[in-house]
Amino acid sequence: MFMVPDLEERSEETKNAISQGSLQSSNNNNNGTCKGDGSPAKRRRGRNPIDKEYRRLKRLLRNRVSAQQARERKKVYVNELEARATELQEKNLKLEERISTLINENNMLRKVLMNTRPKADDSEEPNRA
């Protein structure tokens, strides 16, 4: 199975760009609304275009992996169906042959039965004597 890379596997360029972009956005959003420790009171998450792009690319990669897995599952499923169809066709042919054999045997037994029955003329003659 394919795995989606974690956020920690970013390249150095992406890390630097994200940190610079988040510093710029935090400085712009600061506007005197800092806590006592110097951190911003509210941080807008996901507003950074670099973060958005990274999340979009990660989502696309997850989707691509998921689609590939779905295609593989479908291929396995179709192969199983085809194998089952072949198996059932072979079984059907064997059953049709068996039916044909039984029909022929039945017809032969009917003919034997008709030949071994006493005829109407034979049964009447001994009664007259």
UniProtKB/TrEMBL annotation:
Gene3D superfamilies associated with the record: Single helix bin
Biological processes per GO annotation: positive regulation of transcription by RNA polymerase II; red or far-red light signaling pathway; regulation of photomorphogenesis; response to far red light; response to red light
Stretch list, region Disordered: 1-52
Record-linked SUPFAM superfamilies: Leucine zipper domain (SSF57959)
Compositionally biased intervals (Low complexity): 19-32
Localization: Nucleus
Protein origin, superkingdom: Eukaryota
Keyword annotations of the record: Coiled coil, DNA-binding, Nucleus, Transcription, Transcription regulation
Record domain BZIP: where: 53-116
GO cellular component annotations of the record: nucleus
Pfam families from the UniProt entry: bZIP_1
GO molecular function, one term: DNA binding
Cited PROSITE patterns: BZIP (PS50217), BZIP_BASIC (PS00036)
Family classification: Belongs to the bZIP family.
Protein name as catalogued: BZIP domain-containing protein
Biological source species: Opuntia streptacantha (Prickly pear cactus)
Species classification: Eukaryota, Viridiplantae, Streptophyta, Embryophyta, Tracheophyta
